[in-house]
């Protein structure tokens, strides 16, 4: 059992070395030798954990997706009380924006993967896997909001869920390109949610956030 844990930990360390390269110069120029040097191990040692570059790329993509999912779960769990569907959506969507150094690096690495995935069937299939589940989860939150009277039933659809995903992906890209500041992207995300839920929903959510802050201060 200890050997298995050490093996997994070493694979994660190698993945993180790959991310450091990807976040500064992309993936195309990153050879196994480059990653081994960044990880501080020999090429032969790296190949003990990953026989091919494709195997390493797929593992690293899965690992960074797991970390991103864990970060979003933490955001949801940090909400003050039983969260509304809108609060859950905002926590998830804002967690997909590069609002700090950690999330920025993660998205830079993701961008490098997606650029390669366009022409790499294995990586493309891997990158596509999480999208249907995310869309279904967001659509479920929209349906819950409609049941609570916070959203018109006609907007509780998978299409609206996909539009939210697409909007935040676009905002994240523009933050990485320097078109928007992170806080501007967050403001526009709130504007998109206000359009979706309507002004009444925006006011209700703002009141709930203010109430949560007051409760936290007591």
UniProtKB/TrEMBL annotation:
Pfam families, per the entry:
TetR_C_6, TetR_N
Q: Which Gene3D superfamilies match?
A: Tetracycline Repressor, domain 2
Q: Where is the signal peptide?
A: none
Q: Spell out the coiled coil positions from the record.
A: none
Q: What species does this protein belong to?
A: Streptomyces lydicus
The HTH tetR-type domain is annotated at: 8-68
Q: What is this protein called?
A: TetR family transcriptional regulator
Q: Which residues bind DNA?
A: 31-50
InterPro entries tied to this protein: BetI_C, Homeodomain-like_sf, HTH_TetR, Tet_transcr_reg_TetR-rel_C_sf
This protein's UniProt keywords = DNA-binding, Repressor, Transcription, Transcription regulation
Q: Which GO terms describe its molecular function?
A: DNA binding
């Amino acid at each position: 059992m200890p050997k298995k844990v050490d093996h997994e930990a070493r694979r994660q360390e190698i993945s993180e070395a790959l991310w450091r390269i990807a976040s500064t110069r992309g993936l195309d120029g990153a050879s196994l030798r480059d990653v081994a040097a960044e990880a501080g191990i020999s090429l032969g040692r790296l190949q003990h954990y990953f026989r091919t570059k494709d195997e390493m790329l797929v593992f690293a993509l899965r690992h960074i997706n797991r970390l991103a999912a864990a970060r979003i779960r933490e955001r949801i769990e940090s909400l003050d009380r039983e969260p509304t569907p809108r609060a859950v959506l905002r926590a998830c969507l804002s967690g997909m924006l590069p609002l700090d150094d950690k999330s920025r690096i993660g998205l830079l690495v993701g961008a490098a993967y997606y650029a390669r995935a366009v022409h790499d069937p294995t990586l493309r299939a891997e990158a596509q896997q999480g999208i249907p589940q995310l869309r279904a989860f967001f659509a479920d939150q929209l349906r819950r909001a409609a049941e609570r009277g916070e959203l018109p039933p006609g907007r509780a659809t998978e299409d609206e869920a996909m539009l939210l995903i697409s909007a935040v992906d676009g905002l994240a890209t523009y933050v990485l390109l320097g078109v928007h500041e992170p806080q501007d992207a967050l403001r526009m995300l709130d504007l998109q949610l206000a359009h979706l839920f309507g002004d009444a929903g925006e006011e209700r959510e703002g009141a709930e956030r203010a109430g949560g802050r007051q409760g936290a201060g007591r």
